[in-house]
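> forwarded from #structure-qc
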C-alpha cells in the first residue's frame, strides 16, 4: 500500500502563486508516476500534470502548460505542483494520485492510478 499526503492549498487572490506538495509513503516504486488532478464543485475530476519518477518526464494538461510546473524530489518521494498566475477558474480540490507503470497515454486518466490522497482545497478569489 502507498499513502499520499497533500499539502499547500489555501485561499489566494487572483494572480498569486501556490505550491502544492504530495508525499508518498509505504510501498513506493522507483518506476511510479505521480499526478495531480483537480475537481471543482459539480464537475468531473480533470488532469493537471504528472511526472514519472524514473526519468523526470513531465506531462501537462494543454490548457495549464506554462502556468503550472510539476517537479519531484526523488529521495523524499515527493511531487510538487507550482501554480502561478492563479485564476478563479483554478478553484478546486486538488488530488494527488500515484501508480506504478503508468504509460504515457494513460497519465491523464484518473482511473489508471492505484492510490490517491485526500485532496487539498485551492480557492482563488478576490
Amino acid at each position: 500500500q502507498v499513502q499520499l499526503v497533500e499539502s499547500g492549498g489555501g485561499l489566494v487572490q487572483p494572480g498569486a502563486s501556490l505550491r502544492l506538495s504530495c508525499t508518498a509513503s509505504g510501498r513506493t516504486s522507483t518506476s511510479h508516476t505521480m499526478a495531480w488532478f483537480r475537481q471543482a464543485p459539480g464537475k468531473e475530476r480533470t488532469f493537471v500534470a504528472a511526472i514519472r519518477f524514473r526519468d523526470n518526464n513531465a506531462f501537462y494538461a494543454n490548457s495549464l502548460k506554462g502556468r503550472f510546473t510539476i517537479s519531484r524530489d526523488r529521495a523524499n518521494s515527493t511531487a510538487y505542483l507550482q501554480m502561478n498566475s492563479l485564476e478563479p477558474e483554478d478553484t478546486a480540490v486538488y488530488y494527488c494520485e500515484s501508480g506504478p507503470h503508468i504509460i504515457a497515454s494513460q497519465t491523464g486518466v484518473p482511473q489508471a492510478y492505484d492510490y490517491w490522497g485526500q485532496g487539498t482545497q485551492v480557492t482563488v478569489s478576490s
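QC bot note: The first strand starts at residue 2 and ends at 7. The mean pLDDT is 94.
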